[in-house]
Amino acid sequence: MKEVPGVIVCASCDAVHVRLELQAREVALCQRCGLEIDRHHGQQNDWMLPLTVASLMVFTVAHVFPIVQIELRGLSSQTTLLSAVIALAREDMVLVALLVLATTLLFPLSQMLMLLWVLVPLRWQQRAPGFAWLLRAMQLLKPWGMVEIFLLGVLIAIIKLSSMAVVMPGPALWAFMALTVLLTVVTAFDPRSLWRMLDAADAYQPVESRAQ
After folding, report:
1. Strand-by-strand arrangement of the 166-169 sheet
2. What is the pLDDT of residues 39-62, one digit of tens each?
3. Which among 1, 11, 91, 173 counts the fewest CB atoms within 10 Å?
4. Which residue, among 50, 47, 26, 48, has the nearest Cα to 37 in the 3D structure?
């Protein structure tokens, strides 16, 4: 299918509209069905890449350093996410271990890496290979990233354990808190804003480069 610059199609009724330059906080609605078809995204293009890089850095801290340190009767133990997954697998809860690994590590990491793969070329007015496929994949993975659910479970466990032992938060716990906020912001991006960035990048390219 050939892309037509300056045109936007309603996702609900397939009505074709001319894309207008919106001002801050303006929203464009479909003239046929009233569905939102476009909106002004403010400074999203400027902060998406730095926040994605920051998310990856915090993600590394969250998965490398201990989440909590537990002291009981002179004995001390530190727990990381990976060690918790391994402990679940050893207790014959392989399915639960895989679910925790996928929803707190694999899916969020995949989202961030795909977004980084898309955003870095756009910063230099280039189109990333597999651009459209990656946007669809990110939207499909979005509901499966459950870092906030894992964090809630950890906080509940800390509250319960604090009555029996000394529980000290580790660096990873604070990193998971920051990661929850960052991922909420980063993964809430509107795909239309990335397509708009791509249109601007295509318009920036010389005519002979776009023809190749």
Report:
1. 75-79, 68-72, 166-169
2. 665 556 677 888 999 999 999 999
3. 1
4. 26
